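Ribosome-recycling factor (Ideonella paludis), 187 aa
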Amino acid sequence: MTTIADIKKNAEAKMAKSIEAFKNELHKIRTGRAHPGILDQVQVDYYGSLVPISQVANVSLMDARTISVQPWEKGMGAKIEKAIRESDLGLNPSAQGDLLRVPMPALTEERRKELTKVVRNAGEDAKVAVRNLRRDANEQVKKLVKDKLATEDDERRTHDDVQKLTDRVISEIDRLVAGKEAEILAV
């Protein structure tokens, strides 16, 4: 049987997961600087199965605007280069022997503005997810009260606690959005 404490703990855990998912989403959004994580979603054909680049090569930074990709096997360089070119990241790798250099093109002002919109939309989606979690928690508490397993005072207190948690999580999302926007707009 679920208790009010379980409901609160569950809501808190799910909201923490929402923030983690949002942070991962933000990592995928490109800023002017290079970071190895940008290639995480690019998949390479490795003996008939698609795997992330990080599983077939060493991905690291050469400098602030260049990522280096060092394949672990001889024949993988061309496949990795093709996979990066065909990804929707707009990157153009160049091969130097076995090593691939992936320069990050500078962002135009227009592209920066588009990216801030993408960040804001991702932030809104994260807030909607958190609000849905709040609603679910509140409905679970209402059900406990209806089944006479909790009092109306418990319900009110729990609604207040869940609301405080929601406000805290949403302000954290707003902070992350503002930080990412500042990072994107910094030339």
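The longest helix spans residues 109-146. The domain at 36-103 is CATH 3.30.1360.40 (Gyrase A; domain 2). ok done for today
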